[in-house]
């Protein structure tokens, strides 16, 4: 009974994953993001013309912020679908999301300075957080690209049956992460309607990712207890913790934490590849 129940969930994941990577879904996602961007432009225009209720305060860059938020939703879903395929690629996806968040915050803050600008020292200092987020996003973009390029996907399982079992567990995790993410999204919408303030639950979701990484680390011990693999998975979990702190950190510190996390996983990847090559030569 239990095996049948979990088997149904795994088949559901396979079906969703198959459609998620299709060209049709990609076009649908693009259309949705563009639609929200246009809707944001209309709302911003109505706010500029004072045609909205007084309690609604809309930034001139609301359309960009809204489009980025919708795009981030699909990026998170893409992250969830990556877990069964590669934990390393899923970690890379987390850095992609952080870089987009930094860009979104830069656009959001820049929207406060579209009026008359007084280019004095104080104003220049106010722009530093925006510059920090922008260049931080570029650094994370670079680190993420190098991280993907350096990846060597080596199975830790010993045979096909173990590989299927390991992937199946990760598919179940992805299913429940998807359900949780949808639940958080519904909660955010209801909360925004009640409080007239949208609170994005990405922080809570990244907290769940920490436990997910640790669970995968512990479960992987069933297939391999090699120190190299153990340390590599542990570094991924630690990087997720740093990224979670990034979401709550003030300006400058958020970029610093994200860059530290990126350099850490990049360094571990290069060292892991080097040790792996030496091990193959010695064998």
UniProtKB/TrEMBL annotation:
<feature type="transmembrane region" description="Helical">
    <location>
        <begin position="61"/>
        <end position="83"/>
    </location>
</feature>
<keyword id="KW-0472">Membrane</keyword>
<feature type="transmembrane region" description="Helical">
    <location>
        <begin position="199"/>
        <end position="218"/>
    </location>
</feature>
<feature type="transmembrane region" description="Helical">
    <location>
        <begin position="253"/>
        <end position="272"/>
    </location>
</feature>
<feature type="transmembrane region" description="Helical">
    <location>
        <begin position="169"/>
        <end position="187"/>
    </location>
</feature>
<keyword id="KW-1133">Transmembrane helix</keyword>
<protein>
    <submittedName>
        <fullName>Uncharacterized protein</fullName>
    </submittedName>
</protein>
<keyword id="KW-0812">Transmembrane</keyword>
<feature type="transmembrane region" description="Helical">
    <location>
        <begin position="230"/>
        <end position="247"/>
    </location>
</feature>
<feature type="transmembrane region" description="Helical">
    <location>
        <begin position="127"/>
        <end position="148"/>
    </location>
</feature>
<feature type="transmembrane region" description="Helical">
    <location>
        <begin position="28"/>
        <end position="49"/>
    </location>
</feature>
């Amino acid at each position: 009974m239990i095996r049948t129940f979990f088997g149904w969930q795994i088949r559901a994941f396979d079906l969703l994953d198959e459609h998620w990577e299709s060209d049709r879904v990609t076009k649908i996602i693009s259309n949705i993001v563009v639609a929200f961007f246009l809707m944001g432009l209309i709302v911003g225009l109505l706010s500029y013309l004072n045609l909205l209720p007084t309690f609604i305060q809309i930034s001139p860059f609301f359309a960009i912020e809204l489009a980025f938020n919708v795009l981030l939703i699909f990026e998170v879903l893409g992250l969830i679908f990556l877990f069964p395929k590669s934990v390393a690629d899923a970690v890379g996806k987390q850095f992609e999301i952080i870089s987009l968040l930094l860009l979104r915050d830069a656009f959001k803050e820049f929207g406060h300075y579209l009026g008359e600008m007084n280019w004095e020292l104080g104003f220049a200092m106010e722009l530093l957080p925006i510059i920090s987020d922008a260049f931080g996003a570029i650094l994370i973009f670079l680190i993420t690209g190098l991280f993907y390029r350096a990846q060597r996907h080596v199975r830790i399982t010993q045979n096909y049956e173990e590989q299927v079992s390991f992937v199946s567990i990760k598919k179940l995790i992805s299913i429940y992460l998807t359900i949780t993410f949808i639940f958080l999204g519904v909660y955010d919408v209801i909360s925004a309607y009640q409080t007239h303030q949208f609170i994005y639950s990405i922080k809570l979701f990244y907290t769940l990712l920490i436990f997910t990484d640790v669970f995968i680390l512990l479960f992987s011990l069933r297939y391999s207890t090699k120190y190299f693999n153990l340390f590599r998975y542990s570094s991924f979990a630690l990087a997720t913790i740093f990224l979670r702190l990034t979401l709550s950190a003030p300006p400058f510190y958020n970029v610093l934490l994200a860059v530290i996390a990126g350099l850490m996983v990049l360094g571990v990847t290069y060292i892991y590849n080097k040790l792996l090559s030496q091990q193959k030569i010695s064998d």
